[in-house]
Amino acid sequence: MATVKKIDVLVIGGGPGGTPAAMALAQAGREVMLVEAGRGLGGTCLFEGCIPSKIFRETAVRRHAIAQAGEFGLRLDGREIPAVDWAVVQTRRHRILNQRAQGALAKARALPSLEVVFGRARLTGPRTALVELPDARRSIAFDRAVLATGSVPNRLPIPGAELPGVLDSEQLIEIGFVPESLALIGGGPIGVEMAQIFAMLGSRVTILEATPRILGPVDAVLAAHLAERLEADGIRVQTGVHIDAVEGDAQAHRVRYRQDDKEQKLAAQVVAIVAGRYPNVDGLGLETTAVQHDRHGVKVDERLQTHETGIYATGDLVGHPMFAHWATAQALAVARHLLGAPAAFPRPEYNSAVIFSYPELGMAGLTEEAARAAGLDVAVAAYDYRIDARAQISGEPDGLLRIVYRRDDRRIVGIHALVEGAADLMGEAALAVRNGITLEQLAASIHPHPTLTESFGLAASTALAE
Ligand code: FAD
Question: Who's near 115: CB < 8 A, 6+ residues apart?
Fold first, then answer.
């Protein structure tokens, strides 16, 4: 009879929602097994998401900056816009990914009570699992489990979606060339980031979005401003569309779609379907347990425990918001809870995130719409980066800041910034929102000059003076 390995905690999935939980539990001396089905530790974020997309963006933004060199008194005698050597970009991506994956594995392997296993895990009951290895199977008995299998790209039921050259976001990361023209089906964060990256690299890009506006849950004023910016930068943004079909072959495609009941056709060398992601529950053996799920994700209580006592779920697997730092915050909270320590489970109203559009769009806390929908009486302290010293110096003055605060006590419930550099403003924004900082406190904080963070103090003091 095959031996059964008995452990304290089984963690399935080595992404941002799994690895930090496994490591925190092992650091505290629990016997932990972390099972990962992919190429290494890091998950979608490392291999197909956050990191590779930002590696591409770095090349795109640098190319764009070189194209603007004349404005800064730098003359490029000869070629004005650098040619893209895509093979080098992809090699750089592989190098950074491998380095990060190896670093993560080394850290995990340094923990004596953590066993990292590369294979596919499947629950076989409320306290048992089977791990499929390339050449063997291992039976596991566990006391607790953390499910962190993430999400996979949404497959839309569009005729032609399966044609060669019609890619999902993960395949787009692997692309071997910069397409002449690119049609992106989906105007969410991934669609917008990819649109601007490839447009800056020289592709002709169109976004086809089903809903009336791009970036649905984002601050509406900032989303509208960014949509105008995309158009001004030559990206076509078609909203309220219904895709009828994708036709063609690996070399050239045609997207047939309807907008306002008018039939439209769009030719594109590459079509990418980037319309969100759905929780990865397939093959996880949930049916052998009481764990429940629907199309939004695995159902959990406020402590991220599923309907099966002792089995927890984190990250993209439990649905929106789908961000790496959110998954990690959940993972660490579950670990603390399992160790019997007080755990602050992350709350959506305190989340922060960045869409790495151009300019960057950072958000912390509630949008004005979400705050009103929650019954809060709020006002907005606004700021236009066209008057900002730092933004003028960097040549990127196009942007807006919106600080959402309660009218009664002027506590800040949300900070939303669209400006190149917004990513690095979100630390202060998250701190302000999480701690219910008031406009007065923000105005009284001394922000260094000339930096973008000054905008927080200036917006607050202007609103207080009104
Ligand atoms: P994942 O990272 O998906 O990890 C799940 C892991 O589980 C995978 O490694 C998978 O191989 C493994 N697995 C699945 N099934 C099994 C099984 N049965 N047995 C063993 N292992 C299994 N987020 C940000 O915060 N910032 C960004 O800038 C950002 N950019 C993104 C850009 C793109 C293009 C995409 C697609 C996503 C981006 N995200 C970003 C989202 C981010 O990648 C996810 O929110 C995050 O990776 C979720 O972490 P997770 O651990 O829940 O899931």
Answer: 7, 32, 33, 34
pLDDT in tens, 249-260: 878 899 999 999
Tell me how long the chain is. Answer: 466
Give the largest Cα separation in the chain, rounded: 78
Cα separation, 323 vs 426, in Å, equals 14
Ligand 1 centre from 13 Cα, in Å? 9
Q: Is the CB of 367 under 6 A from ligand 1?
A: no
Give the residue among 305, 268, 250 at the shortest CA–CA distance from 182: 268
User: Is the CB–ligand 1 distance for residue 49 below 6 Å?
Assistant: yes
Q: Is the pTM of this model over 0.85?
A: yes
For 142-167, the pLDDT digits (tens) are 999 999 999 999 989 999 999 988 99
Q: Which of ligand 1's atoms lies nearest the C-alpha of 122? A: 18
C-alpha angle 348-351-356 in degrees, rounded to nearest 5: 130
Q: Where in the chain is the domain with CATH 3.30.390.30?
A: 350-465
CATH number of 4-56+87-153+278-346: 3.50.50.60
User: Is residue 352 within 6 Å of ligand 1 at its C-beta?
Assistant: no
CB 368 near ligand 1, within 6 Å: no
Give the whole-angstrom CA distance, residue 209 versus residue 403. 28
| Distance (Å) from CA 97 to ligand 1 centroid | 14
User: In Å, how far are 180, 382, 423 from 387, measured between CA atoms?
Assistant: 37, 12, 20
| Alpha helix stretches (DSSP H) within 120-277 | 169-173, 189-200, 220-232
* Ligand 1 lined by 36 (C-beta under 6 Å): yes
Q: What is the pLDDT of residues 6-47, one digit of tens each?
A: 999 999 999 999 999 999 999 999 999 999 999 999 999 999
Atom 23 in ligand 1: residue holding the nearest Cα: 323
User: Which runs of E-coded beta strand occur in 92-163?
Assistant: 114-118, 120-125, 128-132, 137-147, 151-153
Q: Does the C-beta of 18 come closer than 6 Å to ligand 1?
A: yes
Helix or strand run (H / E) with residue 402: strand 400-406
CATH code of the domain made up of 350-465: 3.30.390.30
Question: Which residue intervals of the chain bear CATH 3.50.50.60?
Answer: 4-56+87-153+278-346, 166-275
**CATH classification of 166-275 is 3.50.50.60, yes or no?**
yes
- Residue whose tokens read 């429940």: 292
Q: Angle at CA 249, nearest 5°, toward 248 and 254?
A: 30
